[in-house]
């Protein structure tokens, strides 16, 4: 039945009680039972992000230029600090957005319009060449702008294949994409090879570092084996990097960067053919939470490079332990060789989805991959708290499945 609009208002406490009661039906993410959507860099990082968010709870980032210079300043600071981290040259620029999807849609739009104007083909339809592992945000962008997406198979190591890209592209290609890392397998695509292709064929290379942008640089500082993926690679034209994932900033917050301000001229939207005069935005959204901007600024100030390295060390230490203990369970193996904090595991001897069903019955929300069938998690300190319980339940689930191998699973993969 459709919920009726209430006739009378309720007391604050009654409304809050109702909210808390509704929450009881949610998955127990606080105790690590949700494999994505939530991120944790420690209670202190959460606290500073929340406090900053609520300090700017009522302001509107849309009004940064005219009413809230503090918000505009924080936004510019975040972009400067991000470019410092990601080796942006002096000519580079960037913008804050409300999420990875918005960053990607903006970058695709900018690249498409850049191609239309630089090739003097104002009606060019354009296509994107991406690996099959690229995020669906590229297809969403393509649907909005009527572009074609060409998904190419990955190599045996599950990373994008530059040769397959070259075979798929043509004169109408407006962008090629590498992920750092891709969501399904957590591996960083060979950005240096894609860069060579981009430079040789004069193509726009976008690096989707939505997951890795704010953890890969720190993992690299900790001497982990992280392939180059940022503006230090010469053919990279643009990048998306999510603050609200492994930047451990409050949602919604992401960044999109361009190597050169000349590439970004088509990024902004400006309009004045209406009674209210000039309307200018750098996002798809109009009104945007200033809290997301303040939260990101505050977390950067609070952690600094040293704090981020400490948190990255904690996360990666947990990931190492997770991989070690999963691999130690007979019949399980890690899919590929993930570079960062996304890990999938599968089995060559029994149905891994049957294991997932057993985990679901034990209160875990299983992340799933369909190719290959695998159990998938995007790990931060949220899941670290639950490691012992998780490993115990996986061990038990595997034993149950081994004992009844004929049992069929009917669970399906979804994001
Ligand atoms: C999460 C993600 C995105 C999209 O980000 P949202 O903030 O969910 O819009 C893009 N690319 C990759 C690799 C991601 O993991």
* Continuous helix count: 12
Strand tally: 13
Along the chain, the helix and strand elements come as HHHEHEHEHEHEHEEEEHEEHEEHH
Class derived from helix and strand content: alpha/beta
Q: Unreliable runs, pLDDT <50, ≥5 residues?
A: none
> Could you give a short account of the major beta sheet?
7 strands, mixed
Radius of gyration: 22 Å
Morphology: globular
User: Which ligands appear in the coordinates?
Assistant: pyridoxal-5'-phosphate
Mean pLDDT: 96
How would you explain this protein's 3D organization?
The protein is an alpha/beta fold and 415 residues long. 39% of the residues lie in helices and 15% in strands. It has 12 helices and 13 strands. It has helices at 12-23, 43-55, 69-85, 100-118, 137-145, 162-168, 191-201, 216-221, 290-327, 352-361, 381-384, 387-403; strands spanning 93-97, 127-131, 148-152, 173-179, 205-208, 236-242, 254-258, 269-271, 279-281, 332-334, 342-347, 367-370, 373-378. Strands 1-7-6-5-4-2-3 form a 7-stranded mixed beta sheet, with helices on both faces. It has a 4-stranded antiparallel beta sheet with strand order 10-11-13-12. Strand 12 and strand 13 (373-378) form a beta hairpin. Helix 2 (43-55) packs antiparallel against helix 9 (290-327), helix 4 (100-118) packs across helix 5 and helix 10 packs across helix 12. The longest helix is centred in the last third of the chain and has 38 residues, at 290-327. The chain is globular and about 70 Å long. Residues 99-101, 135, 137, 179, 183, 208, 210-211, 242, 254 line the site of pyridoxal-5'-phosphate.
């Amino acid at each position: 039945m459709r919920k009726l609009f209430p006739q009378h208002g309720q007391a604050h406490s009654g409304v809050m009680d109702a909210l808390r009661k509704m929450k009881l039906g949610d998955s127990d993410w606080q105790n690590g039972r949700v494999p994505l959507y939530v991120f944790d860099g420690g209670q202190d990082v959460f606290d500073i992000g929340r406090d900053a968010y609520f300090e700017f709870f009522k302001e509107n980032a849309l009004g940064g230029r005219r009413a809230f210079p503090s918000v505009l300043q924080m936004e510019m600071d975040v972009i400067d600090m991000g470019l410092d981290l990601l080796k942006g040259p002096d000519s580079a620029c960037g913008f804050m957005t409300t999420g990875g999807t918005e960053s990607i849609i903006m970058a695709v739009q900018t690249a498409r319009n850049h191609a239309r104007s630089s090739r003097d083909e104002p009606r060019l339809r354009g296509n994107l060449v991406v690996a099959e592992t690229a995020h669906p945000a590229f297809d969403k962008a393509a649907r909005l702008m009527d572009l074609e997406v060409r998904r190419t198979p990955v190599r045996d190591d599950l990373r994008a294949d530059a040769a397959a890209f070259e075979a798929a592209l043509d004169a109408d290609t407006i962008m090629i994409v590498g992920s750092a890392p891709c969501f399904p397998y957590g591996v960083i695509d060979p950005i240096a090879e894609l860069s060579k292709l981009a430079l040789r064929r004069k193509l726009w290379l976008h690096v989707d570092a939505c997951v890795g942008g704010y953890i890969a640089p720190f993992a690299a500082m900790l001497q982990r084996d992280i392939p180059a993926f940022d503006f230090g690679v010469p053919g990279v034209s643009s990048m998306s990097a999510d603050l609200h994932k492994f930047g451990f900033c409050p949602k919604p917050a992401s960044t999109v960067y361009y190597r050169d301000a000349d590439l970004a001229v088509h990024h902004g939207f400006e309009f004045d053919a209406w009674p209210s005069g000039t309307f200018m935005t750098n996002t798809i959204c109009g009104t945007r939470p200033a809290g997301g901007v303040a939260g990101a600024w505050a977390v950067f100030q609070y952690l600094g490079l040293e704090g981020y390295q400490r948190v990255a060390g904690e996360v990666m230490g947990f990931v190492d332990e997770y991989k070690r203990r999963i691999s130690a369970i007979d019949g399980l193996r890690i899919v590929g060789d993930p570079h960062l904090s996304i890990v999938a595991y599968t089995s060559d001897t029994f149905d891994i989805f049957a294991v997932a069903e057993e985990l679901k019955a034990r209160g875990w929300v299983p992340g799933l991959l369909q190719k290959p069938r695998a159990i998938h998690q995007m790990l931060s300190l949220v899941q670290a708290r639950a490691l012992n319980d998780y490993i115990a339940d996986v061990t038990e689930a595997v034993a149950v499945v081994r004992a009844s191998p004929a049992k069929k699973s009917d669970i399906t993969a979804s994001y």
